[in-house]
Amino acid sequence: MSEELLAEEEAVRQLAARASTLWERLAGDFVPEEGPESARLASERLGKWRDKAAGGDAQLFQKRLDWLGTSPQQVQALLGEVRLKGALPAWTQTFRRAMAARRTAGQGRHPSTFPFSELLIPFAEAAKGLLIPECRAVFTPEAFDSLVEDLIHELSYVAAPSLLAEFTGFRSRQGGGAEPTSRRLYEAFTAQQLDEGLWRFFSGYPVLARLLSRTTEQWAFNVCELARAVKADQRELQRVFAGGAPQGRIASIQPSLSDRHHGGRTVARVTFEGGVQLFYKPRGLGIEDAWYRLLEDLNARGGDFHLLRVLHRGDRGWVEPAFHASCTQVQEAKQFYVRAGMLLGILYVLEASDCFFENIIAAGAFPVLIDTETLMHHVPQRSQDGVSAEELAQDIVFNSVFRSGFLPSWDVGPRGERVDISGLGATAGQVTAYLRRQWRHVNTDAMALEHVPIRVETEDHLPHLGGASLRAFDHAGEIIEGFSMMYRLLRKHREELARPESPLVRLSTQEIRFIFHASRIYGLLLKRLGAPNHMKAGVERSIETDILSRFYVESREKSRYWPLLQAELEAIEQLDIPCFRARADSHALTLPTGKVLPEAFKESGSERVWRKLASLDEADLELQVRFIHAALGMVSSSQEQAPAARLRREAASWEGGPLPREEFAAEASSIAAVLQERAIFAPDGGATWIAPQLLPHAGHHQLRPLRMDLYDGLGGIALFYAALEHVSGQGRRMALAALSSLRRFVVTGPPRRVAQEGYTLGAATGVGSFLYVLCRSSALLGEPALLEDATRAAGLITPEGIEADAQFDVMSGVAGALLGLLALHQATGAVEALEKAKLCGEHLLKHQLPCEP
């Protein structure tokens, strides 16, 4: 071996060592280096890992290390500098091929608008060398070029931020102006990199070298896999989708239409030379096939669903696309919403989830579910079933029509952004709380990267009429009509649907996806890991990734699922969104590693479906219809610009005189009876309700279990019943039942929990209201024990919390806390309450603003 090759070999070994993940080091593939710098790095990284994985908690961090079978002392040495013990990892061979191709790849052979595409062509050339000969026979040149372009796009997404960091330094050193019309500096930079600079660049970003090489290998493997699938499935494709007519090669392809799973595999849309268009999915489509057979069966019983043809081929499958089309008349639009209600009825019974707008297509008058992976979705085990009224109410909402994600619903971001991503409610133009990259002046001297909010951009899930999209809240009657019809149809035929030959039984044996953490959590982590500082040391990137372990070490429920963590980490390390699958009728979960969790689920997805099917009755139908009304009504009310002004006008138009006291008392008793009828009672005597709740900072309501404050929560209902008891002797039991959750909260909740759960310090929406409700209820009910709870609630108001308040007002700020504390002092004479009230007053005086005379 020549000296040049020996030097290259050593450089690659060093690159592999710096790129190595924490998990590779723990597996014994690397040997720690000695020396003070390595020891310093190791100690620093151990502290970072403890912070990321356990929030700095030594006990929780030890729990994390126990799962890995190691200790802080054992692992620390592996966190410093290391050297490779044995053979080079496989990805380094692909990397060396790419480096060898950098001079011959040639700029401009793959015209592209992706950032730094010229510097990524060597990896595309290396990828072509990994393909099997059959690939060229399956794709037309145009289709193959689309695949290569997709690879360069993927590589650019991974590499561009780090390359921009280097280009920014190069641009600064040149001292020239960054003009968007000039490419002089950009071309000089790329030429330098293609000469010898890429070696130097990757020595500074070794993780990036590994990721680009692995992405290249995955692309080649997946292209070969698709080519083999086309060749093996050719006759069946012709039979199922083309009436037996030959279809030839793939003439065009749109790859990367889904999240990456299992080694970069994604959904692709292909068009054959014969004209047939299909979606190729790199997983078995047994669930899709069974779903459309079920819809076909329901159509024969009175349903009305659009059917898609599916070819299930074991580990892969093909399905025809659903095309968005407008309705041509008003009647079709009404039929769409009747069918949407019918679809909601099936989704409710089948325990579906994730039926958001991306997974629905409005094909004229038909809503079509295009992703059925989460039908019969399993539910993770909990340490115990819900026992409090609040937990029971949460279970009712979770197991209702809301679970599917099909009905309008709001998510609220950290800055109050509200967005509806539901299958029936999402509208284009909504700004989400998430950011995406936006490149400016791509591949010019002025190239720059910005991060802009992601917007909902499509309305293909909504019906259109006359060039405009329609809104579900205008068609509540049709939705409820369709839902009620399908609900009763399923109830009527439930015995037939449970027979062995039923398509529902077939569906219940299929493999489905189990979503443990939302894909957006993984996506946010991957975006953060794309920053240049996470491309410099593999072990530090792994430490950043291990923030996922906090979900497990901090949660008793999730601790039982900790084996999923390693599979999540391994997927993230190769840029995948983790994906878990299980049979719908199984209690077991098989991980991608082959490890089986035998009792992952207390109840299988199919068992939940059979139980729900057996429990269908008119009372449940009435409840679900109320939920649908509420969901659509809350969306409708959000469109009203000034409801308060409308109410003032109605009050001003009242022409009657004052009402007698008895009429008020009778109406209060009537309200109390309705509330009691709709209460959710727990075995411990507590009660709560499900009602519209104001989402913090969003100015919008959502149906959920009541919170505990006075303004729109249990505190207000408890005070109402306490007052009713005081005047009529009819409210004691319900007042104490409504106070149950609040009393438990003030006993067990540390001060930090107040902010975590969205409570303020105020007298309407926060701790001030807790104090007021408990003190007044104590007086109205003659219950001294409530004052003890009020004293505990005062402990939730801390000097630090008072100092941090920026609301100031009675509703949500320290002015409200002050009033609550004074109520407690008045009732008990507590000196501490008075002292805290003084702190509130001083805080208000400190921040007062002068007023004009």
UniProtKB/TrEMBL annotation:
Superkingdom, natural source: Bacteria
Single biological process term from Gene Ontology: carbohydrate metabolic process
Species name: Stigmatella aurantiaca (strain DW4/3-1)
Lantibiotic biosynthesis protein dehydration domain segment(s): 205-582
UniProt cross-references to InterPro entries, sorted A to Z: 6hp_glycosidase-like_sf, LANC-like, Lant_dehyd, Lanti_2_LanM
UniProt protein name: Lantibiotic biosynthesis protein dehydration domain-containing protein
CDD domains associated with the record: LanM-like
